[in-house]
Write a structure and sequence with these properties.
The chain is an all-alpha fold. It has 9 helices and no strands.
């Protein structure tokens, strides 16, 4: 959950900021505990047993996992280090608003793009577009440091990057089938969160040089282009043959 830090820090310092974040975390935890204590909406079939062994040799799932590793990693790295990166160009004060623009654009993209992509079965094309835009976006920011320009670039970046998550999760469910959908989504989210940690740490080591930091984000996106190209062009060709 993203929380603007500036107003809270100015109003009550770090103690107030941490108190508000702790309250939100506790509220979310209580909510989750209340939900899981209730009866399941859909009862599982005890006669169906699903092994995770199928994931080891499933190239399709590993490609999707790699894309989420990069996508979530890039977003987390930008949210964490954008202020420091832009600070080298004298634009650090705008970072909070720019991250908000990127996030809002991502919410809009996630609300619009997945349905269109699914309707026309253009999932691979959408994922290729997302990582390609990411590659170009951070090279453009490295070249032009104007805050308005960076805001426009991050709007476009957020619009396609965050929309890629529901596209990937939807495709994984179609690929794995209903019995394996939970395992597939869990695997992908673990890969994405791992990327969120790894790319943040990589940028931490490069943060002294903004061009290296932005270049690392573009390099990660370029790897994503290669991964997306390895996916099947259409959904039907990506469905696995499930064992009985």
């Amino acid at each position: 959950m993203a929380l603007r830090r500036g107003p809270l820090l100015h109003a009550g310092g770090l103690r107030l900021l941490l108190s508000v974040q702790a309250a939100l975390a506790v509220t979310a935890a209580v909510w989750v505990l209340a939900v899981v204590r209730g009866p399941a909406a859909f009862q599982g079939d005890p006669s169906v047993t699903v092994s995770l062994g199928w994931l080891r040799g499933d190239r399709f799932m590993w490609l999707l996992g790699g894309l989420l590793f990069i996508g979530m990693g890039v977003f987390n790295a930008v949210a964490t280090w954008l202020e420091s990166i832009l600070g080298h160009f004298g634009r650090g004060g705008a970072a909070g608003y720019l991250i908000a623009i990127m996030t809002a654009a991502g919410i809009a993209g996630a609300a619009v793009l997945p349905q269109v992509v699914a309707k026309h079965d253009r999932r691979r094309a959408m994922l290729q577009t997302a990582v390609s835009v990411t590659f170009v976006a951070f090279l453009a920011i490295a070249a032009v440091h104007n805050a308005a320009f960076v805001g426009g670039v991050l709007f476009a970046e957020g619009f396609v990057l965050l929309a890629a998550l529901p596209v990937v999760l939807d495709w994984s469910e179609l690929h794995a089938g209903p019995e394996r959908a939970g395992a597939a989504v869990g695997f992908l989210l673990l890969a994405g969160n791992l990327g969120g940690v790894v790319l943040v740490l990589i940028l931490q080591g490069l943060i002294g040089n903004p061009y290296l930091s932005l270049g690392a984000l573009s390099a990660a996106a370029l790897a994503g282009v290669a991964l997306a190209t390895g996916l099947p062009a259409r959904t039907a060709s990506g469905v696995i043959q499930r064992s009985p």
